[in-house]
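Run log // design_07
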């Protein structure tokens, strides 16, 4: 078949027109089956939705875990509210809350209570979930029971007095309270009914054994003023001859004179002469240490060192045994100990731990009056600044306070005598003050108070 040019043009036109018509109809009925840009946008939205769902699930799980932990903690607390914290709970929970101190007597109403007496019994309760380790009243250890009840006698000077009560829990947190007391001046001086002042006929003898080691055979142990402490304390007590006491017998051991044998001999032969109504005063200044292997406590005499500690050191159990023998013949024994000069040891002692509280291990016994220069773990301070006006050399902070108290600063009740409890209370307050809180004496009285010295006007 032969087509003319006109027919070919006509057929092509019809074909193109038909194709155009079909495409137009298809575009009006529906969109293209595959739009790539729309598919990409839909995929991105799905990914974002899945991400938000995942994050929401994680947050919800964390919140559920936190709620479960809080519920478990509440269950533990409610299960044993009055039972001491278990070992497991101590390890998992850190106790940083200080004990709460409730004062029963005197009144704790933030007002200043006015009293006339020179002595005041302080009573209260210390609360803490971890348990109470100790309570002090003006830095004197108070009697304390398992429920936290405590009591201690405080001595007041005329005028304003601040009584500070401190409590420490078993985790080392310390709480404190202060009560202000105003003591009025008495119209006339009346001797305390608690004290029995010896008459001229029945005056006892005061036996003084004063021991001080500053110069050790091992030079690295040397102290500055331990020997001077022993000399001046013995001298001051010796001045009581013919006043409060009919006689004052004094024995002083210094530096190279101090060894295990000389101490025990002086206690047995010299102090052994004391009669039943006499008073014994023992002062010891030097190093005190604890042997790591045996757990025994030792006073370090002049010739003791790391090689011969068990042979030359004075084991505290031997010292205590001698005290027991003395107490069978003498009613009243006063012991002042300054053996915590750990910081002065320049050479390490193998098998020894410095800074132990040797006074704390002496067992309770009636008629024992014990004061130590510092608590366990503290170091005794000494300084050239700690000296009386008439002295050239300094003292340890402990002995410096003892001397000042004996000279009359401890006379809280305003009479002519300083009693043992007045002296101990003064030293317990003064030593932390002059050492800026670094040293706290430890005192214990087993027996009734007694006059120690008559104040000498100078």
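design_07 sequence
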């Amino acid at each position: 078949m032969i087509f003319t040019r006109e027919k070919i043009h006509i057929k092509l036109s019809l074909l193109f027109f038909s194709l155009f018509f079909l495409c137009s109809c298809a575009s009006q009925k529906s969109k293209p089956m595959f739009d790539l840009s729309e598919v990409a946008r839909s995929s991105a939205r799905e990914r974002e939705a899945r991400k938000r769902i995942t994050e929401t699930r994680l947050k919800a799980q964390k919140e559920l875990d936190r709620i479960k932990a809080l519920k478990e903690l509440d269950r533990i607390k409610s299960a044993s509210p009055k039972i001491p914290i278990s070992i497991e709970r101590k390890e998992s929970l850190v106790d940083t809350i200080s004990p709460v101190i409730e004062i029963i007597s005197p009144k704790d109403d933030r007002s200043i209570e006015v009293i006339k007496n020179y002595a005041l019994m302080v009573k209260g309760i210390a609360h803490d979930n971890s348990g109470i380790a100790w309570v002090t009243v003006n830095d004197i250890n108070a009697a304390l029971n398992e429920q936290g009840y405590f009591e201690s006698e405080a001595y007041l000077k005329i005028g304003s007095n601040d009584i500070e009560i401190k409590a420490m829990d078993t985790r080392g947190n310390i709480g404190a309270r202060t009560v202000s007391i105003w003591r009025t001046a008495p119209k006339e001086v009346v001797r305390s009914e608690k004290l029995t002042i010896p008459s001229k006929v029945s005056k006892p003898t005061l036996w003084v054994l004063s021991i001080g080691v500053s110069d050790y055979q091992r030079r690295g142990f040397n102290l500055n003023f331990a020997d001077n402490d022993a000399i001046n304390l013995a001298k001051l007590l010796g001045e009581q001859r013919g006043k409060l006491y009919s006689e004052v017998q004094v024995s002083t051991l210094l530096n190279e004179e101090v060894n295990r044998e000389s101490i025990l001999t002086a206690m047995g032969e010299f102090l052994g002469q004391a009669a039943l109504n006499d008073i014994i005063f023992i002062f010891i200044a030097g190093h005190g240490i604890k042997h790591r292997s045996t757990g025994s406590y030792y006073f370090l005499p002049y010739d003791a060192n790391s090689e011969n500690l068990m042979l030359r050191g004075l084991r505290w159990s031997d010292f205590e045994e001698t005290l027991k023998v003395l107490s069978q013949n003498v009613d009243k024994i006063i012991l002042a100990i300054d053996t915590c000069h750990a910081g002065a040891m320049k050479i390490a002692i193998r098998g020894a731990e410095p800074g132990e509280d040797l006074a704390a291990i002496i067992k309770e016994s009636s008629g024992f009056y014990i004061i130590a220069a510092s608590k366990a773990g503290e170091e005794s301070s000494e300084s050239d600044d700690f000296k009386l006006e008439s002295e050239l050399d300094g003292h340890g902070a402990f002995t410096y306070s003892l001397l000042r108290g004996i000279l009359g600063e401890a006379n809280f009740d305003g009479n002519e005598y300083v009693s043992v409890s007045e002296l101990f209370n003064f030293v317990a307050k003064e030593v932390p003050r002059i050492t800026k809180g670094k040293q706290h004496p430890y005192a214990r009285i087993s027996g009734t108070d007694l006059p120690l010295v008559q104040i000498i006007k100078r």
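The two ends are 159 Å apart (CA to CA).
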